[in-house]
Amino acid sequence: MNRRNKDDDRHLPTLADVAARAGVSTATVSRCLNSPAQVQQATRDRVMAAIADLGYSPNFGARALAARRTGTIGAIIPTMENAIFARALQAFQEELHLNGITLLVASSSYRPEIEEEQIRTLVARGADALLLIGHDRAPALYEFLESRGVPLLITWVFDPALSRPSIGFDNRRSMAALAGEVLGQGHREIGIISAEVEGNDRARARVEGVHDALRVQGLDPARAQLIETTYSFESGGAALARMMAHPTRPTAVICGNDVLAVGALQMARKLGLRVPQDISITGFDDIELATVVEPPLTTVHVPHREMGRAAARRLVAMLAGEGHGNSVCLETRLCLRDTLAPPARNS
Amino acid sequence: MNRRNKDDDRHLPTLADVAARAGVSTATVSRCLNSPAQVQQATRDRVMAAIADLGYSPNFGARALAARRTGTIGAIIPTMENAIFARALQAFQEELHLNGITLLVASSSYRPEIEEEQIRTLVARGADALLLIGHDRAPALYEFLESRGVPLLITWVFDPALSRPSIGFDNRRSMAALAGEVLGQGHREIGIISAEVEGNDRARARVEGVHDALRVQGLDPARAQLIETTYSFESGGAALARMMAHPTRPTAVICGNDVLAVGALQMARKLGLRVPQDISITGFDDIELATVVEPPLTTVHVPHREMGRAAARRLVAMLAGEGHGNSVCLETRLCLRDTLAPPARNS
């Protein structure tokens, strides 16, 4: 017999130990854990009693055991193409792993209909909880998740006006701080290269942040030239080229993220413009790319890893029945590097 | 009644149409598609006949219908942290999406025990097929997948000696071509910064490729200084610093991928070494980073997107019952940019 007592801490109880104690097959124990509805109540009670007696934990924290069904959490990110979401997600996964939870990730290409399909798939595949980026999506989807009783955490944003739990940061205030610095150095002709704001509350809030900073200086937000595009090096570069062909050239271009900013930086070089002497360019995120490029990028540091870890801890607590708690706003930080300087006198 | 005939191409038949024709509920039709084992044979036959009559396709190619259960494919990659796997995976997902299949991704942090857990989770969650990176893993895992009848495709490698289907490229030959170019420019003191080769057939093959090139020149492979480390900017930089502290400094450092190479490049700058005048540095992969850094990186271009798309098409065909076909070797290409030059005379 494989039966162990709790004091024998050199050997954690196994599935086989549970099966032996409950007098059922290991397959039945698995079914109790993974598809309890398929097991008769009496059998299930016997197996659960054996689990409790032995202190058996199927590879994850015992507290979460009662509440969880599959040990799987799903996350949907807008893209895998660049490192924006990668770092937070890696930390998110590492923290979940410490709690015995497996992360399954889907990437929606910033398309709501694909995200919806992925949400439904993850729920159908038994995800115990979901992590989603931003709040912008059809109300029916939130109702669907609620009707299925799937705990949900939003990240990358913090909006105190919404009751839905989130662990993120204030995109608007963070960008306003950066834009305030740009204006403080004397720039008045501002260009904004943003992701498409429709369906993207992070991008929208960042544009609003630039507008806030303009208003603080008594300037009309409409004077900032805005180009919305997709997040890629090429589109950042193309947007900069369009701006520089405009009759009133900006002296500073504020980009919605580091990928767009690096694309703009490369295009500036191609156009023979020196950064920051001829034009200032700023990013957002502070991914590794920001310090790899020459000159290093002035940007906003987002605590991606901390955000990923905190989100994982919160979801584990939610699965353990601790409720969703308050939304959390993490602090961002201005990184003043070498792509921002006062405008040239004659530009 | 919702019944349609096949000629009405303005309206694709729906689940409700199938249910009405078969005289069952829509829930039963769903069950036939998702968990056929739970439906009685006679009912299943009636539903399948209705599906065939109406030409109904639940959001994906009809050919795959019979063979597939959940419309989900799983992929496990070693890391999400950098862009190495991201680009191929994005293309993989886009192609799967065209076929109505949802991709779920897990990332194993290069740890076999995490990968194993993820493989088992994906199978338990009903993945119809799996995409895995490289061949190196415990035989028991392959047996597990075979016993579950889960089709499997390997990518990132091409090894004609193995019968398991793969769509990849020849890591060894590709790296040998690059190393041959390095030696051809006159370098004799070579450093290699590699990922840990244990459990990583791609990294191992690349190191062997450098050794092959040395042998072709009649040189002893042992004369190349090899440092194995993790894939990150920091570890690439740290490895370069160690090499440069060695009594016989290399004049060229061949890195296992672009991330290591960029880390080495940054460290070279910190150490006051000019690239390529004082030291040559090469990468592997040709991710976007390679052209963003200054000077642009000499590297090996891997057709990541093409590989991702081809892998998706092959898996769709496998799910449609077409067998796994032959392994495919995609061509890589040498990218000679600005980080490789002949060694300085006095170095």
UniProtKB/TrEMBL annotation, chains A, B:
Any idea which GO molecular function terms this record carries? DNA-binding transcription factor activity; transcription cis-regulatory region binding
Q: Which residues form the HTH lacI-type domain?
A: 13-67
Q: Which key words are in the record? A: DNA-binding, Transcription, Transcription regulation
Q: Which Pfam families match?
A: LacI, Peripla_BP_3
Q: Taxonomically, which superkingdom?
A: Bacteria
Q: What is this protein called?
A: Transcriptional regulator, LacI family
